[in-house]
Every structure is written in structure tokens, then in C-alpha cells.
Specification:
The complex is a heterodimer of chains A (about 325) and B (about 525). Chain A has about 325 residues and is mostly helical. Chain A is about 75% helix and about 0% strand. Chain A folds into two domains: about 70 residues, no CATH class; about 210 residues, MetI-like (MetI-like fold, Orthogonal Bundle). The longest helix of chain A is centred in the N-terminal third of the chain and has 36 residues. Chain A is globular. The chains are: A mainly alpha (about 325), B alpha+beta (about 525).
Chain lengths: ~325, ~525
């Protein structure tokens, strides 16, 4: 098991290196200059050169990359070109916001979607199945920004029940944190529950057609027992993989939801940094997103044998 | 299932019942920022949002008045020597910094030295050190209330550039604003508000300066009476325009300083908000690359102008809010006289005649635009349609702002639907578009005679002489037609009705002194 974990972790190093090169090169290929953005339509070429020198942008690209890589190896992700803040603490601070929202939202989405998928599969072609399939299709088709704005207008503007903007960390004031995170969490949970429901339904239908289920029924096992003890453990494994992929993906940033609800998360930081051509922040965000993705999927893989004993971590 | 739903509704209602007192704070005005500020160091790492916040904490010797002319701020009076190379500022008595220290001439000299130090990276340093508009040869404290600035030669723009908002108004801050290592810590200025808390990515909170020494009289632009009337200002970062509108309507913010025209039209119908508009000195227009093989031909540029119904374009892209203006001198400027008021009329016959004279054979002409500023894109779409109606093969290339700015600075375009930030003197308005392309590729108009005339206008102080220069410049501009000026921007601020005393300002950044909330 330890060897397996070590191998998987070691495999992330070349992945991160390749990603860092790709992000570095692609960002520099995109036209736009952070120094020019800072000066706007004012400022002459001499000022621009001076600012570019001060930002270290006058050096050749390979030199810039190697300096950055050496610093990363020492745990220093550099400083933001936009506000001169160290990138690493910035990423940690923003990641906490994103992680808080995403973990709760995915947990809620999974606890709604898995039973819903199971129910739909169990009552396949019934009215309940139709309603669940229609609902989940609608949810996975709706853009998150539109759904978020809709909730915001209803609960924030029309009813005035919940705050429209802002964020309070849970450790600072749990009660207020709850008020500020309800809408983004609900938005994300409902959107993601659509795809999880579809997966849970499809894999359960597949399992319910297998012979051992017929055998269990023939033995006289009650239907609830067939469903929870025999069908669910086997049908859950693919859904668990999907939940892992969703989690890894969302932890890398939920830019749209963060923008609509003005959450100071990782996704918004990345988008702002791209528009500002804030290279160190973009590179830091991408590295973190990839690292989180790889680690989340490693954890998911390691937990896989719990749901499917046929799989071993060898 | 019904129990779950009942429980969920009950929980939401419970949270909602307690939520009423959470986001409203008495004596606080909450203002939307569309992105976080970049720093609190005036005139260095800045953008428009940064300037807006910093202007509430920092004051300079001079500041812009409501009519965009310059008046004293920390100075009580300003004496100019006969040869216009020595400016003597007498400081107002009784002004203190946020830390309680009294403002003295030594503080002015210290702040100036920091601005002039290349390590500060003050964006306006080149304008004062001889590389740009003028050269300050010395700054001296004659006595605790008198500071003397010496210039190498006369400049009509010394006070104007000093007051520029993007220069941080050359604000005077206390030496404790920087740490022992010389690095900026926080602004300890003389302004009506002082820094409370900056929570990056979320908000900047400013607190009332209870010891603020206000000038007598009324509020007047960035000078005049700047008494703070609320305990707290909170500038809240809300990137998304739709979320910002929802926040205003729900009472989560009190002011949207700059709303787009479509939202303003909708918000005007809402009883709970008030809309405040003013014409600013920013400039929107279509640039030509005069070095381009096609639009380098002045006949083709004039044909394109004749093809456009500029009045209709302005009406459409600004929802009828802005007035057309064809001159680089903004309509709000006192120098925008009769010679600058005519707006070109669409003339398709003339357009076709000029196209034939230029030997135009239907080659594609690309207009670069950005959706970051919707009016840039909308202008390009309308211009394309009108040019096509005249037989010009116009195409549009849409880019993000950073890419478009990069192309602008390199002069890498044929036509560009562009927005210039405000320049508060006509000489600067012409200077921003005029210059040698060989050394400054971003310049639109490369005409040595015009460059020389602008240099004259920068040095001459006499109003009538300056007006004559600007009128001649505009005549040459029309003959060369390096760009099509369309209109000056509108600043549309929207407040909740509880906010009293707010007014949009010609410079286009919000001012929250003299503003209260019920």
C-alpha cells in the first residue's frame, strides 16, 4: 500500500513539471503585458521599460522560468505582479474559501443524488423515475451563473432572506458564515447533483439486471434489502469515482459561482490573475489546482476497495 | 419528503429572521468596486478603483475643482513668480495627519523626495524630472508653512499634473506611512477618512477622520469642504455587474459608482434608487493606424468618417445618455468653444467619391474592439454596418482588454474602437494621441507641426493664446483625420434613496465626503 501511495505521489512530480511549463509558455504566448495594464493608456515607452525591469519581465523567458522553478523548489511561489503579495499565502487563503464551499456542496449533492438515482433505477420507467431524470437533466443543463443569479434574485432581492454579497469565514463567526454560504452551496450542490443522479441511476440499473440480484429476490430477500445491501455497494463504485472527479475539478476553483456570489476563492483569484496577466499567481493557481486534483483522485482510488472488494491498491 | 422540505424552509426562515441586522450597519456607506484595489500607495501601483479609495485618505497641495480647473487643497494660497518658474505654496494652518501630527512644510518636502525617488516607482515622476512635461529643479521648506517649488522653465501644466488623480494627487503623507526599511505600510494622510481594514479580495473599510480640518465653503470637486458625514465607508468588491445590481436592490450596497447604460435605464424606473449622471472627460472614438497601407490614405479615413452616422452611433451605444463630440477637447472643458462643436454628418455619396479617389478595391479593413467595455464593441458593430453600407469591407476582431491594450501600445491595428481615460487639460488631450510613432508606437497622430504646437500649449499660461493654439490644432486634426472622436464618457452613479448628498463627478471616481445615509 505504501509503495503504491509513494508511486502515485511520485508520478505527480512530472505531471506538475509539464503543467508548469505548459502554463508558463501559454501565458506568455497570450498577448498582453502586466506592466502595460498597470500604466493603462498613459505612460510612455521609458516608463513601460522601467516597470517591466522592476517586474523582472525584461529577462528571457527560459531565465524567467528557471528562476521561478528554482524558487518553487524552495517553497517560494513568487510575488503577485499586481499587488506584490507573496503568492503561496494568497493561494492558501483563497483555497480555504473554495474548499469550504465545495466540500459541503459535494457532500450535499452526493447525499441527494445517490438515493435519488437509486430510487429512479428501482422504479425505472415510473413517474418518479421520469421526474428524477427530468429534474437531473434540467440541473445539469442549467449554467451555474444563471442558476446562482436566479437564487440570488429570489432569496436576496425579492424575499430579502439571505445576504446577496459577502463572505465570512466559519472560524470567525459560524452563524454569519452559514448565512453567506447557503446560496453558493445550494447552487453548486443542485447543479452537481444532476450529473451524480444520472450516474447513480445508470449504474444501479446495470446492477439490478445482474443474476445475483434475481437470485437475492428469489431467495425472498425484501426489496429494501436487495436495494441497500446488494445493489448499492456494487452500483456505488462508479458514482464514487465520478464524485472524486467532480471534487477534484471543483476544488481547483469555482470561478463562476465565486464571481456571482463575490466569494474570495481560488477560481476568482485565477480569473482576475489571467485578466491582469499576473503570471506568478496564474502559475501558482494552476499548480495548486493540478496538485489538488491528483491528490483527491489518489484518495478516491485508495478508498475504492471499501466499496468494491474486488479492487486492491496494488 | 414533506418533512424534509418543511425543515429546510423552517431553517432558512430562522436564518433569515436573524439576518436582518447582519449586513446593515448604521453610519456606513457601502460602495461597489468591480475589482480589488492594487495598493494604498498613491500614484504607484494603481488603477481607477485604487485612486477612488486613496483619494478619501490623501490630499495634495492642489486638487481639481468641480469644473476640472485646479484649486488649492492643503495650500491656503499659491504665489507664482513673474517668470512662472517658482511656485510658493503657503500651507493651511491647523491641518493634521491621521496620526495627530501637524502638517508642516518639511512633510511636503519629505513626501516630494519620496515621489521623486525612482525606488518609489511613482508613475508621474517622468512628468516632473525633465523626461516628460517639465523639470522640477528644487523643493524647499522656507518656513513651517511655506514650500517653494522651482522649475527649469515655465509650464502651464505644473499644478494640473500635480493634481492628477492617477498621480495620487501628489498627496502629502506622513513619514510614518513607510516602515524603517523604506517600504510602504499604509497611508497616513490628511484626508477625511483613514484606513480601517483592507480585506484583500473582499473589501476596504475606511473610518471617519474625526480630527479632519475641512476647508470652508462648499464641496468643490476634490477640493472645497470635504467634511465626512458618516463613520465608515466600505468599498466592497463585487466583480459581476448583475450581482452588483442585485446587491443594490437588496440593500446590500448603497452605491454603484459607475453603472452601464442599459442597467441605468432600468434602474431609473425603480423607486428605491436614485441615478446621478455627469459627463466626464474620458474620450471614446475610433483610431486609425496612419502607417497602414490602406487606412494610411487620408482619403480613405475621410471616406470612413463620411460613411458613419456618428450621432446615431453615440445615441445607440450610450442609450441616448451622451452627447456627440468630434473634438479631442472634452465638452466639459472651458476650451470646448464653438470651433469644436460641429459634429460631422453622414454623407454616403461623399464616402463613395472619396473611396474611388483613394482607389479602394474592397480590401478588408479590420476594426479591433473589446467586450470588456461594451461600448467599444457596440461602436465597432455599428461602424462595421455603416461602412459596409458605403461599400467598405469592414471586419471586427474582438479581443480581451489586455490584448487590445498590447496592440494599442504597439500600434498593431488598422482601426480600433478605443476608450481613453480622462485628461483634464486640452494640451494633455491632444498630447495623449499625438507624437512620433517611431519612438512611441501607441501615438495616433504623427504630425511634427502638431507636436510643436502642443509643446507651445504646454508652456503658455495665457488663456486666449492657448485657445488659439487648440483651435488651430483641431483644424489640423480634421485635415489629417487620424481618428474619429465620438463622445465623452458618462459617469452614471446609482444610490439607494437613503443616501443623501451624492453627486457624480466629471473626473469619474466616487466622492463620499459630504454624503450621509439615513
Amino acid at each position: 500500500m505504501r509503495a503504491y501511495i509513494a508511486k502515485r505521489v511520485a508520478m505527480t512530480v512530472p505531471t506538475l513539471l509539464l503543467v508548469s511549463i505548459a502554463v508558463f509558455v501559454l501565458m506568455r504566448l497570450v498577448p498582453g503585458d502586466p506592466a502595460q495594464l498597470m500604466l493603462g493608456d498613459q505612460g510612455d515607452p521609458a516608463q513601460l521599460d522601467q516597470l517591466r525591469r522592476a517586474m523582472g519581465l525584461d529577462r528571457s523567458l527560459p531565465v524567467q522560468y528557471l528562476i521561478w522553478l528554482r524558487n518553487v523548489a524552495h517553497g517560494d511561489l513568487g510575488r503577485s505582479l499586481a499587488n506584490d503579495l507573496p503568492v503561496l499565502p494568497l493561494l492558501v487563503e483563497r483555497f480555504q474559501v473554495t474548499a469550504g464551499i465545495v466540500l459541503v456542496a459535494v457532500a450535499i449533492a452526493a447525499s441527494i443524488a445517490v438515493p435519488a438515482g437509486l430510487l429512479a433505477a428501482w422504479r425505472q420507467n415510473s413517474l418518479a423515475d421520469l421526474a428524477i431524470v427530468a429534474g437531473s437533466t434540467l440541473l445539469l443543463s442549467v449554467p451555474s451563473f444563471w442558476f446562482g443569479l436566479l437564487l440570488l434574485l429570489l432569496f436576496g432581492v425579492k424575499l430579502g432572506w439571505l445576504p446577496v454579497i459577502g463572505y465570512v469565514p466559519f472560524v470567525e463567526d459560524p452563524w454569519r458564515a452559514l448565512q453567506y454560504t447557503i446560496l453558493p452551496v445550494v447552487t453548486l450542490a443542485l447543479i452537481e447533483s444532476g450529473v451524480i443522479t444520472r450516474m447513480a441511476r445508470a449504474s444501479t440499473i446495470e446492477v439490478l439486471r445482474l443474476e445475483y440480484i434475481t437470485h437475492a429476490r428469489a431467495k425472498g430477500v425484501p426489496e429494501s434489502g436487495v436495494l441497500w445491501r446488494h445493489a448499492l455497494p456494487n452500483a456505488f463504485a462508479p458514482t464514487w469515482t465520478l464524485i472524486g472527479l467532480i471534487l477534484g475539478n471543483l476544488l481547483g476553483g469555482i470561478a463562476v459561482v465565486e464571481t456571482v456570489f463575490t466569494l474570495p476563492g481560488l477560481g476568482r483569484l485565477l480569473v482576475d490573475a489571467i485578466f491582469a496577466r499576473d503570471y506568478p499567481v496564474v502559475q501558482g493557481c494552476m499548480l495548486l489546482a493540478i496538485l489538488v486534483y491528483v491528490l483527491v483522485n489518489l484518495v478516491i482510488d485508495l478508498l475504492y476497495p471499501l466499496f468494491d472488494p474486488r479492487v486492491t491498491a496494488e | 419528503m414533506r418533512h424534509w422540505m418543511t425543515a429546510a424552509v423552517a431553517a432558512t426562515a430562522l436564518i433569515a429572521a436573524a439576518a436582518g441586522d447582519v449586513w446593515a450597519q448604521a453610519g456606513t456607506i457601502r460602495v461597489r468596486l468591480n475589482s480589488d484595489i492594487r495598493s494604498t500607495d498613491p500614484g504607484t501601483n494603481r488603477d481607477e478603483n485604487t485612486d477612488a479609495v486613496v483619494q478619501h485618505m490623501i490630499e495634495g497641495l492642489v486638487a481639481f475643482k468641480e469644473d476640472a480647473t485646479v484649486g488649492p487643497m492643503l495650500a491656503e494660497k499659491i504665489a507664482v513668480s513673474e517668470d512662472a518658474t517658482t511656485y510658493t505654496f503657503t500651507l493651511r494652518d491647523g491641518v493634521t495627519f491621521h496620526n495627530g501630527a501637524k502638517l508642516t512644510a518639511d512633510d511636503v518636502v519629505w513626501a516630494w523626495k519620496r515621489y521623486a525617488d525612482p525606488a518609489t516607482k511613482w508613475r508621474c515622476a517622468p512628468d516632473f524630472d525633465g523626461r516628460g512635461l517639465m523639470k522640477v529643479t528644487g523643493v524647499e521648506a522656507k518656513d513651517p508653512r511655506t514650500v517653494v517649488f522651482a522649475l527649469a522653465k515655465p509650464s502651464a501644466l505644473f499644478l494640473t499634473v500635480m493634481a492628477r488623480v492617477d498621480c495620487g494627487s501628489t498627496g502629502i503623507y506622513h513619514r510614518d506611512s513607510v516602515g524603517p526599511d523604506g517600504k510602504w505600510v499604509q497611508p497616513i494622510g490628511t484626508g477625511p477618512f483613514k484606513l480601517g481594514e483592507w480585506k484583500r479580495g473582499e473589501y476596504v473599510e475606511l473610518l471617519r477622520n474625526t480630527a479632519y480640518a475641512a476647508r470652508p465653503g462648499r464641496r468643490d470637486g476634490y477640493t472645497g469642504n470635504k467634511t465626512p458625514l458618516v463613520d465608515r465607508l466600505r468599498f466592497v468588491v463585487i466583480p459581476d455587474a448583475a450581482a452588483a445590481k442585485a446587491a443594490l436592490l437588496s440593500g446590500s450596497v448603497d452605491l454603484l459608482p459607475d453603472t452601464n447604460n442599459a442597467d441605468a435605464a432600468e434602474l431609473r424606473k425603480r423607486p428605491e434608487v436614485a441615478v446621478h449622471e455627469t459627463q466626464t472627460m474620458s474620450m471614446s472614438g475610433i483610431l486609425f493606424q496612419t502607417k497602414d497601407p490602406q487606412v494610411g490614405d487620408v482619403r480613405l479615413r475621410k471616406a470612413i468618417l463620411a460613411a458613419l452616422d456618428t450621432t446615431e452611433i453615440v445615441k445607440a451605444v450610450t442609450e441616448g445618455e451622451a452627447r456627440p463630440n468630434a473634438s479631442p477637447i472634452p465638452t466639459a472643458s472651458p476650451f470646448h468653444t464653438a470651433a469644436h462643436q460641429a459634429v460631422p454628418k453622414q454623407d454616403l455619396a461623399l464616402a463613395k467619391k472619396l473611396l474611388a479617389e483613394a482607389g479602394y478595391k474592397g480590401q478588408a479593413i479590420k476594426i479591433v474592439a473589446t467586450k470588456r467595455y461594451p461600448t467599444s464593441f457596440d461602436t465597432a458593430v455599428l461602424a462595421q454596418a455603416m461602412m459596409q453600407a458605403a461599400g467598405i469591407n469592414a471586419e471586427i476582431e474582438v479581443l480581451d482588454w489586455a490584448t487590445m491594450l498590447d496592440k494599442y501600445s504597439k500600434g498593431d491595428y488598422q482601426m480600433m474602437s478605443f476608450l481613453y481615460s480622462a485628461r483634464l487639460d486640452p494640451a494633455l488631450s491632444f498630447e495623449m494621441i499625438t507624437g512620433p510613432k517611431a519612438t512611441q508606437p501607441r501615438k495616433v497622430w504623427d504630425n511634427p507641426e502638431a507636436i510643436a504646437m502642443i509643446q507651445d500649449a504646454l508652456a503658455v499660461g495665457d488663456r486666449a493664446k492657448r485657445q488659439a493654439i487648440f483651435d488651430q490644432l483641431y483644424a489640423r486634426f480634421q485635415a489629417d483625420r487620424p481618428m474619429i472622436v465620438l463622445y465623452n464618457g458618462m459617469e452614471t452613479g446609482v444610490t439607494r434613496k437613503q443616501v443623501k448628498g451624492y453627486a457624480s463627478f466629471v473626473i469619474g471616481v466616487p466622492r463620499l465626503w459630504g454624503v450621509s445615509i439615513e
